[in-house]
Design a protein that fits this description.
This protein has helices at 18-33, 52-64, 80-92, 103-116, 183-193, 209-218, 250-254, 259-267, 281-287, 302-314, 318-333, 341-351, 358-364, 366-369, 377-383, 388-400, 407-420, 425-437, 445-452, 454-467, and strands at residues 5-8, 37-42, 71-75, 96-99, 141-144, 151-156, 160-165, 173-175, 198-202, 225-229, 232-233, 298-299. It is mainly α and 475 residues long. The structure holds glutamic acid (GLU). Residues 9-11, 43, 187, 201, 205 line the site of glutamic acid (GLU).
């Protein structure tokens, strides 16, 4: 058996989305698993719709996700002579014929086919021996003369046997009248030229496969194996689209997902290995097999992605996580985190159990990082009330005298004040939380105060007292 060669062949007509990444990932895993090669080919023959910025986005996405390829990127726009040769061969052998039907004539054929209820919309008007033939001297496209009898069959690695009766395959175009080759031709020619052994792609291409097989046969080439991946659906079982979340995979970077987590999540979208959920890259390479891909569509579950990402986030040490957050803040928000690295590590340590993404982590760290607080109105109304003022004042007086500002010392002080005032600890801790974080949810308040530091904490508590709308003497 020749070494396995897979390829990912995106068209640069839009951003790389989740479904495309999953295809690329499966291609890469198959190649790595069998120590073969993974080829990247940019299918940019549609000059009108292809854009450089989309190519860049695709390459950037693949690099971010470490979907490294071994060969390429090859650009179809640079391979025209190869396609021209194939076209000449197909015409010379009679496998392809000239068609001079105009757009209007083709429209008439389509309508007639519709009325007759046949699947094939082209009437084969120009096909030698079948129709009246082409008009000499008119610009011609080239069509493949599909066999008039039989079935084109292939064994899909995921879906099993797939057969198309020739009645379902029309004499398709391989070159337009301006000479430019079509997708069907270039894909087959390239896959053959690049010695691709396994074509793995979305199942929206199933209907193209018999056409490409006919091209292989007409060129005397052996078709590769095919594996068509079921689509990725949104939670509502509709085809995954922008309304289900990020459309471009790079948006997940902006949202603070880890590339390894996204890859882990996408690997499990339609593929499984027992009930294991978390895989390192090495495990994916070791365990991935295309036959374990589920033939029914995978559903994109955003909560599951968050869960997977949270597992990766929590597996980082506080120091690593602080480094991730610094880089994220720099890249996405063009800002530097305050404090030194040790302080930042302490900060993320208090937050990481509650965050599932770096963006979530950064958002939850606002009260550590920004001097000005954003207050939740309802929390202020409920907890920064006149009765809280004397408690806060008493606390401030004690805290000002505290020799070292650390969680155990803070806790002791809180307990002493609560006891002295005959109050439950919560009566004190709740307004403090609103005063120093702006809201009702936060990690343990003593850790929070320790990390916020003495100066900011005391200043915020004093403001909190003012917000209570009443002053009283500390007792
Ligand atoms: N360029 C095609 C696409 O982006 C893929 C073709 C293929 O994988 O055969 O849909």
């Amino acid at each position: 058996m020749p070494p396995m060669r897979t390829r990912f062949a995106p068209s640069p007509t839009g951003a790389l989305h989740v479904g495309g990444v999953r295809t690329a990932l499966f291609c890469q895993l198959m190649a790595r698993h069998s120590e073969g090669s993974f080829v990247l080919r940019i299918e940019d023959t549609d000059r009108k719709r292809s854009e450089e910025r989309f190519t860049e986005g695709i390459l950037e996405s693949m690099r971010w996700l470490a979907l490294d390829w071994d060969e390429g990127p090859h650009f179809q726009s640079q391979r025209t002579p190869l396609y021209r040769d194939a076209i000449e061969k197909l015409v010379a052998s009679g496998a392809a014929y000239r068609c001079t039907c105009t757009a209007e004539e083709l429209q008439t054929h389509r309508e007639a086919a519709k009325a007759a209820g046949t699947r094939i919309s082209y009437s084969r008007h120009c096909r030698p021996g079948v129709g009246p033939g082409p008009v000499e001297g008119k610009p011609a496209s080239l069509r493949i003369a599909v066999p008039l009898e039989g079935e084109v069959v292939f064994y899909d690695e995921i879906k099993g046997r797939i057969g198309f009766a020739v009645e379902e395959i029309e004499d398709f175009v391989i070159a337009r009248s301006d000479g430019s080759p079509t997708y069907q031709l270039v894909v087959a020619v390239d896959d053959a030229d690049m010695a691709i052994t396994h074509v793995v792609r979305g199942d929206d291409h199933v209907n193209n496969t018999p056409k490409q097989i006919l091209i292989y046969r007409a060129l005397g080439l052996e078709p590769p194996k095919f594996a068509h991946l079921p689509m990725v659906l949104g939670a509502d079982k509709g085809r995954l689209s922008k309304r289900h979340g990020a459309a471009s995979v790079l948006e997940y970077r902006e949202l603070g997902y880890y590339p390894d987590a996204l890859v882990n999540f996408l690997a499990r979208l339609g593929w499984s290995h027992g009930d294991q959920e978390l895989f390192t890259r090495a495990e994916l390479v070791e365990k991935f097999a295309i036959d374990d891909v589920n033939p029914s569509a995978g559903v994109f579950n955003a909560e599951k992605l968050d869960w997977v990402n949270a597992q990766y986030l929590r597996a980082r040490t506080p120091e690593e996580l602080a480094g991730d957050l610094r880089e994220f803040a720099r890249r996405e928000e063009n800002r530097e985190l305050r404090g030194d690295e040790a302080w930042q590590s302490r900060m993320v340590e208090t937050l990481r159990e509650r965050a599932s993404t770096l963006k979530g982590l950064l958002d939850s760290a606002r009260y550590y990082l920004d001097e000005d607080l954003i207050f939740e109105e309802a929390a202020v109304k409920k907890l920064l009330v006149p009765e809280a003022a004397p408690l806060l004042d008493a606390l401030i007086a004690r805290l000002e005298a505290l020799p070292t500002w650390d969680a155990p010392g803070l806790e002791e002080t809180f307990r002493a004040v609560a006891e002295e005032r005959d109050q439950k600890l919560g009566k004190l801790a709740q307004p403090v939380r609103v005063a120093v974080t702006g809201g009702k949810q936060s990690p343990g308040i003593f850790d929070v105060l320790e990390v916020i530091g003495r100066d900011w904490s005391l200043a915020r508590l004093r403001t909190g007292v003012e917000m209570c709308g009443a002053r009283s003497d500390p007792g």
